[in-house]
Structures are given as structure tokens and as C-alpha cells.
Amino acid sequence: MTYQPKSDFLREIIARGFLADCTDLQGLDETLLKGPVTCYIGYDATAKSLHVGHLLNIMLLRWWQKTGNRPITLMGGGTTKVGDPSFRADERPLLTPDQIDANIAGMQRVFDRYLGYGASATVPSSSEAVGPKTHALMLNNAEWLDGLNYLDFLRDIGRHFSVNRMLSFESVKSRLDREQSLSFLEFNYMILQAYDFLELFRREGCVLQMGGSDQWGNIINGIDLTRRVLDAEIHGLTTPLLTTSDGRKMGKSQGGAIWLDGDMLSPYEFWQFWRNTTDADVGRFLKLYTELPVAECDRLGALQGAEINEGKIILANAVTTLLHGADAAQAAEATAREVFEKGGMGDDLPTLTLTAAEIGEGISVAQLITRSGLAASGKEAKRLIAEGGARMNDAGLTDAGLMVTAADLAQPIKLSAGKKRHALVVLQD
Fold first, then answer.
1. How many C-beta atoms surround the C-beta of residue 418 within 10 A?
2. Could you read off the pLDDT of 362-377 as tens digits, one per residue?
3. What is the pTM of this model?
4. How would you label 92-112 residue by residue, b for 16+ Cβ within 10 Å and e otherwise?
5. In which element (H, E) is residue 22 found?
6. Whole-angstrom distance, CA of residue 399 vs CA of residue 386
């Protein structure tokens, strides 16, 4: 990179590793130096909660607000009815309006932990004040998409799009190259997202869209459309698509997605996900997912041997504090120490509660491992046991067919998968 930005936001995110591409880095930098700037990131409401895969761009919005700018979280109440086809092998399942609204409500609870909404707010877990020009907005694109007249939209907006160019975008091209069906409904998604950028520029003076690298084509479409319709210059910025150092997609674990809603994934399990970070990823994740100074992130990431565990605990505590609060982070660390250092049960472990009726005459330990979330399937649970990776009350398991009765659950049972993943099984009173 030859150009060295002067704005606080760009200098911070570049130092931390957030930047993948920018349409005009110098132009954006000069715009930022003139005062508060409005940007947005869009989120389709496809689930009840955001997950760790979204956290990179949530932290990006947080830095945006902390450096004196206004973020918009655009909820896809309209575009969710279509579904983003980018780099997918098949069409997303269609959701009802009620499902979409419920998902948006769940996602909003997560955003409230990271961004200050309202003119008198402060950035959560921070001392930075949020003035009228930098308070976050949460908007829903259903507000302008639901009422569109189809023929007017085709005439006024659709005429600016080249099908040839749309087919050339990698997100679409890769699907067609694999001879996987792309519906006309999905094909319209990029037009609707481009229209979002145009509308946000009109309504809120929004001059920047940010997103993951897989959104580059959609962002470029919005920039081109706004230039053609309003002759306005706006910007796009993307973050890298992260994988862990061992090649896994960021945010995935053996038990499934790492949800940001505490009702879908306990604060302890969230904390433990970060505590289990691979050694090689500690420094990088500290810079991306915490607000520790970059130099300190580098120092912790360079620790070797057993000392790297200090960095992992600091990472887990810092990320968990931002999402769930300091008390939850401290409780999670205390539970981990009790489980790992003292061999205790730990009050905050993920817990599977069963009734006597569910247990009946007995339930296999493989079923318990699966239902407690330590394995994704019965087959995986049996393989875990066969390979010597499963324990019950710290004793090795060898028989996947071992039956557990209600009498066995007079006291809670601790199940373990490997050295770091644990769960309790308890009998309902």
C-alpha cells in the first residue's frame, strides 16, 4: 500500500488487519477528514441471532463510531424475502414476514451491545460519547422495497444494469460454472442491494458501504447506480473473509455456529470458543476482535509455549466482555478454572436437562453426547468414543451403547469431548 491514510478510522483498521479492498482509499480518507461521515453495512434477517462470522464487521462499525462517524445497521426486511445468492450452492429457504421481524428483533439485541443508538447514547463498554451526528441508526430496507412499483422500478432502476456485467461477478459466475440453478428471484438481489445504497444516500447522506469481500460485486453495483442516477461519488470498503490458521471457516465449531445471542449459546461456551483459539491466531484475533492496543496484541500473539495461554484468556475475556459483560466473562473464566484445574463440575457449563420420561429405561451415552452439543451427530459421538476422546465424570468412555438411567442422574453427570469441551447432564426435579 503506497497511500498512507491520515484519518483515525482508516489508520486504526489498517493497523488491525480489517482492510481487504477499497474503491478509492485516498478519496475516502479525504472525506473522513472533513467531519462525521455516514456508512452502512447490511444484514439479512436469516436467523434469530447474528453469529461470530458477523463479528468482524460489527467491530468495524464499532471502530467507525468510536472514531467519530455515524454507522447504519441496515436490516434486510425486504431483501431477506429474496435471499442473497452470493457464493451459495442453492437457494435460501424463504421466510415469512413474521419470521423476518422476529429475527430482526433478536439481531437488534446483539447490535445494542456494540453500538450506541440514540443521540444521547455512549458507545457500549466505552467512554466515547455519541453526539447527534454520530449516533447509530437501525433502518429496515422493507421501508422502501416493500412498496416498489415493479414496472416503475424496472424502467427507472433496472435500465442501469447490464446483465452481461452481472453474470461476470464471481459470486454469480461460480454458481453458474458449477451448473447450479440460479433463480430469477435471486438474480434480482444485487439490484435491490444496489438500490439500498442509492436510497441511503438520498435519505441519510450515506457515502460508504462496507461488507465482507464476498459483497464486493454488490457494493460496486450500488456505487455505479448512485453515480448514474444522482451523479454522486460514494465509496465501498471490504474486509477479508477470515479462516483460522488451520483452514476452518471462522465462526464454525464442532457443535455448529457460534451464536452471539446468550440464549442460543451460553456466555461460557462463547468464552470457551475464544479460549480454544489456535496459537497462531491469537495476535490476529486480538487485533480484530478486541480494542487492546495493537502493540499489546502483537506482544501477546508472540508468546510461546504455555505462555500463549495468557493471550488466549485475555482474548476470551475481552471478547466476552464486549458481548455479555464483564461479570459473564469473569464467571466463564472461573468456571473454566474449576473444570480444568480443580476437576470440578462448574456451575456455568452448558447443561442438558432431561425428564425421567425422556430417559425411560435408559438413554445411551452416545445420545447424551449428541444432545448436549458435544457432537453434531450420533455417528460423530460414536467415533469420538471409539477414538478415546470422550469421558464421563472424567473417566474414559469405551462403549457407545452404555446406558444411563434416571438413577445414574441422582447427581449431575459431566461429559467431556477432548480436553476442552464439557457439558453437564441433569435430571429435572
1. 13
2. 899 888 988 888 888 8
3. 0.79
4. beebeeebbbebbebbeebbe
5. strand 21-22
6. 8
